[in-house]
């Protein structure tokens, strides 16, 4: 009899240098599973040293070829580490002992992992930097560099389903997916409505008149503007009309009840609670369904929009915040989607144009910058309009104001502030700066992806194609 081990066992490890526990009389084979790559690429303050620390686990420093719990790198240096596919705890990004950011696999949605040792986990690219003012494919005027640090971090998963070509529509499969085969017991007295059917028809860009598409795409051009500042273009006017329609739709109930009535601001000093401000309405409250009281506190949700929170600073701030949120809800959200659709149409019009150097006039960063700034201006315009209404109500506190005038004034104020914000944007080139930042960040992430493809071509062969313009 030879001295052959009684048990043969295979142990998997995730990082080089990871210890393996085994029993005596065991023939063990150590298998190194594929790790998860993490790349830090920071460009904020040249010469600064950063530390990356694992709280409950280990990381592998690729440059030092060593398994450690923390590593250091300098600003402008691409720092590449490995972590296990079941990494526990958090990665802490520190500067001078101060935690700048915490990253966990739960935060990235990467808690599950494929048990196959040959399966490559999704990499993580973390970029922190100042706008490098990278230029579009071709531009007529250079832009300045706003020194605003920004942080974006996210994993890079495989190509999502919504980017893949759609599968042919199969009515039988669709019916099986939409049916609910589990029997449902209805409560006593429940009236079951007849089955409703919806017919969905596929549409194509070619089904729309080309003249309409061309008109929408060119509607943001300076030649369609009605003012010397080239701001009130055809698409801009359509967007303002959509915003006004959304405001009337979202507030139609109280507008319908109070449009021909008046209100005034009243201050009452209570014996126990002190000074309080109220909005007092005229007319018979018994005839109303929504605004059923004769007076409301200025902080009441029913009058925040009507009076703009006039009375106190706290109520004014609350009204501005509610108006800002209202731009992203209900009909306001639909109006924003409509505005974004106009942005996309204008961008496609410019994107299809080829410059003298053979490159496109616009790229995807321009679209992201335009949409981002329009969303920010929509919320800010609504907040400023609410503040303006509150100032008018507070100024005219002694007299009675017509609700109808306030409605018209709110819409007019929103249009005015929208125009002013667009004028400021055009003067300081804010949208161009935001687009430049998106472009700069995209280039940083693309460089990191190309680095992964070169260092590990078997795992990341086509990975950089995700970041092609």
Automatic annotation (TrEMBL):
Membrane-spanning segments: 378-397, 403-421
Annotated keywords: Membrane, Plasmid, Transmembrane, Transmembrane helix
UniProt keyword Transmembrane helix, yes or no: yes
Protein's name in the database: Uncharacterized protein
Organism name: Paraburkholderia caribensis
């Amino acid at each position: 009899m030879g001295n052959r081990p009684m048990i043969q066992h295979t142990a998997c490890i995730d990082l080089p240098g990871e210890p393996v526990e085994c029993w005596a009389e065991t023939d063990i084979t150590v298998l190194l599973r594929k790790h998860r790559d993490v790349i830090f690429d920071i460009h904020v303050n040249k010469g600064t040293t950063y530390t990356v620390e694992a709280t409950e686990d280990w990381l592998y420093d690729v440059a030092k070829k060593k398994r450690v719990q923390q590593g250091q790198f300098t600003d402008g240096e691409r720092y590449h580490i490995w972590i296990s596919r079941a990494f526990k705890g958090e990665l802490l990004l520190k500067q001078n002992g101060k935690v700048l950011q915490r990253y966990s696999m739960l935060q990235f949605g990467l808690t599950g992992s494929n048990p196959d040792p040959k399966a490559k986990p999704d990499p993580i690219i973390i970029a922190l930097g100042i706008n490098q003012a990278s230029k579009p494919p071709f531009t007529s005027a250079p832009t300045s560099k706003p020194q605003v640090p920004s942080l974006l971090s996210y994993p890079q998963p495989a190509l999502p389903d919504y980017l893949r070509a759609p599968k042919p529509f199969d009515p039988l499969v669709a019916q099986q997916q939409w049916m609910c085969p589990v029997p449902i017991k209805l409560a006593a007295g429940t009236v079951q409505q007849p089955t409703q059917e919806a017919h969905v028809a596929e549409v194509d860009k070619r089904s729309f008149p080309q003249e309409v598409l061309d008109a929408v795409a060119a509607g943001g051009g300076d030649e369609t503007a009605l003012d010397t500042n080239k701001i009130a273009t055809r698409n801009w006017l359509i967007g303002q009309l959509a915003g006004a329609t959304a405001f009337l739709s979202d507030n139609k109930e109280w507008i319908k009840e109070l449009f021909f009535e008046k209100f005034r601001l009243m201050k009452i000093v209570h014996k126990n609670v002190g000074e309080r401000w109220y909005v007092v309405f005229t007319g018979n409250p018994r005839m109303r369904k929504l605004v059923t009281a004769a007076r409301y506190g200025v902080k009441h949700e029913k009058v925040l929009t009507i009076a703009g929170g006039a009375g106190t600073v706290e109520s004014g701030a609350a009204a501005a915040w509610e108006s800002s949120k209202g731009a992203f809800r209900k009909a306001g959200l639909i109006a924003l989607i409509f505005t974004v659709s106009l942005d996309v149409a204008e961008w496609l019009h410019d994107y299809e144009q080829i410059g003298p150097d053979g490159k496109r006039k616009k790229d995807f960063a321009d679209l992201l910058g335009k949409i981002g700034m329009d969303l920010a201006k929509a919320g800010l315009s609504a907040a400023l309009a609410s503040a303006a209404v509150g100032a008018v109500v507070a100024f005219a506190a002694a007299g009675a104001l017509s609700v109808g005038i306030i409605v018209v004034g709110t819409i007019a104020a929103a249009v005015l502030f929208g125009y002013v914000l667009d004028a400021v944007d055009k003067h300081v080139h804010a949208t161009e700066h935001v687009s430049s930042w998106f472009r700069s960040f995209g280039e940083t992430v693309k460089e990191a992806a190309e680095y992964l493809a070169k260092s590990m071509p078997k795992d990341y062969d086509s990975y950089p194609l995700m970041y092609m313009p």
